[in-house]
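Listing S7. Sequence submitted for prediction.
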Amino acid sequence: MIVRLNKEQQKLARRQALKDIVYILCQDALKQMQIDGNTELSPIEVFVSARNFCETVLALPDIEEGLAYEIEDLEEEAEGGNDAMLIMSVAATQMQAMSNRRVGIDFRSIIYRIFEHLDDNKLFPSLIMQMTDKEDARWLEGKKTDLLNYELKEIELEGGGSEEVKRLFEDFINYGDKIDVDSIKGNLIILNRYNIEHNHVYDNEILSLYDKLGIKSTPSMNIKEYVAMKQVDTEIQKVEAGGTGVVKEIYK
């Protein structure tokens, strides 16, 4: 249930996770836990492990009877003293995020039992507080941008060339049907600036992302004029920066 990923697997998984609001919400807090030596698991390893835990629990024929055993199995599998807590905390947030799309499951009861189980862990309140603060600070738009910026900088630091950057752009295009429009707009802000700073090498990729928004250039514009046009400023103003209240919803 708990996954360990090599460097390349983590890179791919992080890029895929950019479409998931729960990963956006928790990754800073999880990274700090790793930096502080509270876990050896990376944020994406915790996130994927949490998803595995979610899938296992929600597939149980009787969740009420089986949840305690799944928690016990997870804790036995965990190597670090806080690993299971981190995974279950993120899993609970994932459950809250999907609760409006799944019927017939008492998510609130499951989440309550998980949180009750974790109540004695001294790091648990701090983790939840950090995630909640992200929502209060209107984390959604800005953090998506920061994550994308991180990926672009990582490619440069590792000596990656334009082809690897183009693959990153293509990832966003391929995942576009799973990302909300406002998130695509937020990503466009950074990608468009990056493209301008690199002499419009990625014009075609930028235009593909614009197509996801249904924004078309006029016949009188060439590609470079299009990607640098004032439309970008307009889109920036339209981006909604508010969080979705995933963590806060748990405490209603």
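Caption to Listing S7: primary sequence and predicted structure tokens for the chain studied. The CA atoms of residues 35 and 236 lie 33 Å apart. The radius of gyration is 20 Å.
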